[in-house]
Amino acid sequence: RVLGQVLAVSIARDRVLKAGVPQVLLSAIDNHNKNINSPDAKVAASSMGLCSTCYAVLHEIPSEEVFTDVMELNAVGVATKVLLENLSNTQFVAIILSVMDGWIAHPVLSEQVAQMGLAPILRLASLEDSDVFLLASVIQFVAKLSKRQQNAQYIIDSGAPSKLCKIVRGVLAKEEDDPGAEMPYLYRPTLMQCLAFFKGFSATGVEAASILLEEGVWDLLKALFRTFEVLKSRDTVFFDRESCETAHSAMRLLLSYDIPGVTSEMKADIEKFNPAEERPEGTLLLPGLAPAPAPAPATAPATATATTPATAAVTTPATAAVPHSSRARPPAASG
């Protein structure tokens, strides 16, 4: 906790990093994560609190010193193991995801995370079991990994394209069964991250584009475009230009390759599903999701119980960008 406060002071930050703090934190996690699920409640709470705080401090310092120590100590493997063993603890999972989100900025670590972490991370991508905001964070994380060509095969092997298409179909099906539930609005962050994945993954090459088309993503992109063109919430209809533009960009990318089975109708769709300059009549412009605020300094309660481990204040990849309410209203609309 003290280190977290020290790292917030720029004049001390470099000295702390050069003193080997990242290695100390990673070694502490390696030594104590095995006790997180101890039958002794006090030992479990203490270990959870320590690991959470160490991860939270690491979240504050995504630097070359950290990246080097992460590679040398196989910290990706350890984080993946801890994640697998604690999938039901969404608070702890969110902390680990936020740290790994910083690690994947490094090309070598990005590939390690894709190789070792995709399988457990995708287990959290369930429309039925996951919190709506955790689900959006998970898919955003996968979307970031998918943008690197070196990760393409791991994305394919993990079954991520099929999994994310299934999630989109699930939301659209729920909306068809109960239009009053306003599922696309409720799951807007999740659907936006799915669109980001379709666009980013298709940009990695013809194999990725072919797989997405085989999974039926073309019809999903059209359906999402129409959904976000007139996104309903209570008595208001919004035009989500950002999402429509992402869907259209993904469609253009998919048709930029010479792929068998592309029809003239699909080529015509490019013009048909091009976002209009003006919003549709009767709609309000819905702004994009706000950028995540800067995370608070890593701190943790002085004590922890078996049910409430000491955890640090962190900002998860996607949850910071969306309101924390299952029926949250949108930001003030412009236009």
- Secondary structural class: mainly alpha
Strand content: under 5%
Shape: elongated
Overall pLDDT confidence: 82
Helix tally equals 17
Radius of gyration: 21 Å
Distance between termini? 45 Å
The parts where pLDDT drops under 50 for at least 5 residues are 290-335
The major β-sheet equals: 3 strands, mixed
Strand order of the largest sheet: 1-2-3
- Give the topology string: H per helix, E per strand: HHHHHHHHHHHHHHHEEHHE
Helix content: 55-70%
Task: Give a count of the beta strands, DSSP E runs of length 2 or more.
Answer: 3
Architecture overview:
Helices cover 60% and strands 3% of the residues. With 335 residues, the protein is an all-alpha fold. A three-stranded mixed beta sheet has the order 1-2-3. The protein is elongated and about 60 Å long. The model is unreliable at 290-335 (pLDDT under 50).
Question: What key phrases describe this protein's structure?
Answer:
17 helices; 60% helix; disordered C terminus; single chain; 335 residues; mainly alpha
